[in-house]
Amino acid sequence: MEPALRGSVEKIIDINLDEESLIKKYQIFKYYQEQGVISSVESALFGSVWTNVITALVDVKTRARQEISESEMEEFKRIFASRALEIRSRISEIANL
Length: 97
Prior knowledge:
Blueprint (H helix, E strand, L loop, with lengths): L2 H14 L2 H16 L6 H23 L6 H26 L2
Helix pairs in contact: 1-3, 1-4, 2-3, 2-4, 3-4
């Protein structure tokens, strides 16, 4: 994965960990949990972050008219895995507010 793309992936993760954004999403997912639609607000938030990041990656590659290579996808997985504990920690902080 080229450095600019890697940086974009990291930036999108950072944007998704913004406290205000996480609080808003937490409130929405809490409502869905209370309605019995989802069983875990924290899991839904984690999935939301993952979805936003992979969607941004796909969007960048689509605009460049390129497919995501296998090696790029592997690097994406490594980047996300390296930040997964941080993401989970931020979600836990929001849940405990």
